[in-house]
Specification:
200 residues, alpha/beta, 9-stranded mixed β-sheet, disordered N terminus
Length: 200
Amino acid sequence: MMKNKNVSRRNFLMAGTAGLLISQPALARTKFNFVSGLGSGSGRSTYRGKEIVSFSTKEKVGTIIIKTSERRLYKVLPGGKAIKYGIGVGRAGFEWSGVANIRRKVEWPTWRPPAEMIARELKQYGRQLPAVMEGGPNNPLGARALYLYKGKRDTLYRIHGTNNPASIGKAQSSGCIRMLNEEVIDLYNKTRMGTKVVVL
């Protein structure tokens, strides 16, 4: 029974995704993205959440298919269905496509921006990125990260959460695929190591 009257239906459902029933203040502390006023002054996303849709593909059940032009990620289900998630994708000059596999999964990952990204951000935008940022609600990688590899080579691309929910549906990243924190947790929990990822 839900005793806390301040827990809305949306917060109850979000908490269920993570396997917990927690109050709105606790959700705010973890910075799940459907709570307003989160992130670095970016406001809230206009994206309204994942859905199960009809989906035709020759790929196996469990495969992740990313359609960058749609700003959508599909997790293939049995019976011609898929879970469709909203995503943020690479900005102009950072688009990519291909096939990879998930070879690493991390909860609240540490962010280590590549040296070229640090130099680029400083030169183009005057922003000094940290060499290392520990995992947490303010980390740009968000609550979870799935690391994409080609063979044994790390592509340096990730499917990860975000502390900038307004970027969902937009092309703003350096090539990584961004998701709302509660939805990347959902994908993380549904995805096995070695899963095939097709980026179109």
